[in-house]
Amino acid sequence: MKRIALFDAKPNMVVGRDVRSRTGHLLLKKGAILSEKNIGMLARYGVPIIYIEDNLSDSSESLAPVNEVPDVINWETRVRAERVVQNIFRDVKMGNVINLARPKKVVDEIINELLENANIIGKLSDIRILDDYTFAHSVNVCVLAISIGIALNYSRLRLRELGIGALLHDIGKTKVPDRILLKPANLTNEEFEEIKKHPIYGYELLNNHPDLSSNSARICLQHHERINGAGYPYKFKGAEIHEYSKIVSIADVYDALTADRVYKNAVYPYEAIEVIIASSGNHFDPDLVRLFVENISIYPVGSTVLLNTGETAVVTQVHRSFPIRPVVKLLTTADGKPVKDLKELDLMTNTTLFINKVLDFKNTKRQ
To answer: Quick one: angle between helices 269-278 and 243-257, nearest 10?
Structure first.
């Protein structure tokens, strides 16, 4: 099974996962056969991506069968969480009292689902489903942050503090004019300075809230700080930045890079990870970066990749302990000839091989 953009969908492809609308309504069941008609229907509903069956992505019991792992959280939970964020942002804009009962409840649901999911590896790179950036981003950052917290063996209390702060980390943007937030062109210096105030706005909204810990509120203030002092708004360094904020800063950058925006296209997960690894020790805590890399699929199953030998291959399996060196099946030789036996290679044991870059599947020829 592999993920494709809807515009790459073709009649007679087999749907690999249930397809739902932004409100959770079932549009197509797993196993349905695509047609011009139902592809058009999905387009009208604004579905950006779908999963299709692909016999190149079979897996075995010895490795994490990434393509068979359930979504990292339930669709219903995701939709509910986005609505909670949307309602909180609306209340702030309307000047209403911030009620944290529902955000806390949905964070608990996310924690429960992540704790029950022993196979988080490989699914975190697929968590972007809905296309409303602001609210989807908040939920995605929350999921990513809690996943790192679980890897750190945080107590449930600490997971809650981290989760609620991550879910509301951008609440200060409610105080920034939409003409700046939604501007498709480059921001002026004055506009960027206004954007850089949103951590302060968020902290002022949540600090001293009777139902929120100061550590959670601090995430709003510090998620754009960097350990070398290069961040904003206060250029905090190292130990001045709370660990929760360091976690959320990584999750925030990763999700922002892998999202399509009006002013930029999304990058591949592996490209986002490369940016984060390159910033390890400067912008991001190295130990937290290591945990993050270990708990996310840089090369999702179904990705077509170019090896350093010039051969192309498709990722079939992901190692839990070292996802940056997956198992692949060769598709073409270095001179572009199809590999008929689809030879499988484990990059953990074939140490002279490595992935140069990810290719679009539709541009890879095979027979």
So the answer is: 140
DSSP class of 5: E
Whole-model pTM: value is 0.74
**Which domains does the chain possess?**
2-53 (3.90.105.10), 69-294 (1.10.3210.10), 304-363 (no CATH)
Copy the structure tokens of residue 363. 């541009």
pLDDT tens for 314-329 read: 888 887 667 778 899 9
State the sign of the Cα–Cα–Cα–Cα dihedral 348, 309, 291, 81. negative
CB atoms within 10 A of CB 97: 7
How many residues in total does the chain contain? 367
> How far is Cα 141 from Cα 306, in angstroms, rounded to an integer?
30
Q: Is residue 51 within 8 Å of 75, Cβ to Cβ?
A: no
Q: What is the pLDDT of residues 177-217, one digit of tens each?
A: 989 988 878 889 999 999 999 999 999 999 999 999 999 99
DSSP letters, 8-36, are G--TTPBB-S-EE-TT--EEE-TTPBP-H
* CB atoms near residue 141 (< 10 Å): 30
* String of DSSP letters for 235-271: --BGGGS-HHHHHHHHHHHHHHHTS-BTTBPPPPHHH
Q: How far is 315 from 293, CA to CA, in rounded Å? A: 17
CA atoms within 13 A on the CB side of 253: 24
Residue reference for tokens 């592999």: 2
Q: Which residues of 68-84 are buried (b: 16+ CB within 10 A; e: fewer)?
A: ebebbbeeebbbbbbeb
Query: Which tokens in the block code for residue 126?
Result: 């697929």
Residue 9 neighbours by CB distance under 10 Å: 19
Measured in whole angstroms, the distance separating CA 306 from the mean position of its chain's CA atoms is 23
Assigned token pair, 274? 């490369």
The single residue listed with the structure tokens 């992505």 is 57
